[in-house]
Amino acid sequence: MPTNPSEERAEAPDLPHAAPASTAPGRGWLVPAIIGSALMMQTLNATVIANALPSMAEAFGVEPLRLNLAITVYMLSAAIFLPLSGWAADRFGARRVFMISIVLYAAGSAACGFATELWQLVLFRFAQGAAGATLMPVGRLVLLRTTPKSELVGALSVVTMPALLGPVLGPPIGGAIVTFADWRWIFFMNLPIALTGLVLAWRFVPEVREQAPPRVDLPGVVLTGAGLAALIFGFENLGREALSPLTTAGLLASGIALLALYVRHAGRTPHAVVNLSIFRLRTFQASVVGGGFMRIAMGANPFLLAMLLQVAFGLSAFAAGLMTFVSAVGALAMKTTAPPILRRFGFRTVLMTNAVIVGASFMAYALFRPSWPHWAIMVVLGVGGFFRSLQFSALNGLAYADIEQDQMSRATTTSSMVQQLVQSIGIGLSASLLHGLMVLKGSSELTTEVVSPAFVIIGAITLLSMLWFARLPADAGDEMNGRRGRRAA
């Protein structure tokens, strides 16, 4: 594990705080909005495809369950290539890598739309996942290196506003495309978004890069990529019958073993692809490790709501998607108020208090019944989205409060890797919970009584994050939210 960060420092003349987005009047939102729109293309596509699987299976002449491979191979590809994102941004320039990722993602989307055989779709989804692996960490890196820390919470809030729309708009858009058009438009609709994002990124996004980036840590990339892929594939198959329990356990054990080997490798490598020493920082640890329990719930929530509203309540995919859209409205409303709230109360107080509210909101979903009026369910979902958005705005900002500029690329890579892993854990955990609750209640199908307790369990898991939040100092991240400057004045 590196012990002397100064040995890895590389000066970048156009970096750390010379932020065009900050100095140009009225443009502080522009670069974050451009990056967020590219991320929305990725998150939207990831959720839209789930609704189209039955139609795609019919077109390819295969069983619908086999089409789940199109989703799994995307996640595996993203896991494999994600560790390279930070190094590539340092080596070739973050804006260049970001634009190339947009082009390759759009090309992969178009190829998926023209696929006529299942093997073609799987191949093109693998290519799409490789391109998508760099969009989030590299886009975030551009912000971190061009935005003063005192403005970073607001910039990250703007970035996540479009990205939040993807998972919520996905179900109704996917249902509408499958119902009124051809499933291939699920992939073709990415093309105009990609073209617009490409032009705007070329015109407005500044280039940031290291002058003397270290050599790529290929053994580290292989160990982390393979380990992460094995864990994600294993968690994805928990509670399902696609793989035998022994195979799933083998995948999980292999993933843990590979990552353990990486920990040993990183301790001996000065320029390891993931710098584990940053976990010694309380702010990064609280955001990534403590916040991981929140993100487990974020991964489980869409799956559990779909099971409750569509299977247990009997609503159509389109109707259920329209109901859950209100959570995006709550999330977007919070994005405009998160910076002043954090400035007023500080990260520690907000994270501690809001963790209780977020956990309670997940547990409240267990009270939903088919007899409830739809507006009442939508109100509860909207309130939950509102406070979850505040929590993730705080977590995303806090992660980089104490990170030096020369560590930013690997910090973003590490954070993205953990986020992807814990969200897949959330999906696998929720599937396993439902299977166990069905066995416990002696039920052969998903009912309201089976699904509801899962929300209580997931809500309780989010409260574990408070163990990390409570250890934060009272002034943690004050440079990020402007409290330190206000006190000094």
- Average residue pLDDT: 79
Number of helices: 21
What are the segments in which pLDDT stays under 50 over at least 5 consecutive residues? 1-27
Radius of gyration from the alpha-carbon trace, in angstroms = 22 Å
Helical content stands at: over 70%
Oligomer: single chain
Quote the distance from N terminus to C terminus.
Answer: 40 Å
In the CATH hierarchy, the architecture of the largest domain is: Up-down Bundle
Number of discrete domains: 3
Beta content comes to: under 5%
Largest sheet: none
Which outline best applies? globular
CATH top level assignment of the largest domain? Mainly Alpha
What sequence of helices (H) and strands (E) makes up the elements?
Answer: HHHHHHHHHHHHHHHHHHHHH
Number of DSSP strands? 0
CATH fold topology of the largest domain: Growth Hormone, Chain: A
Secondary-structure-based class equals: mainly alpha
CATH superfamily of the largest domain: MFS general substrate transporter like domains
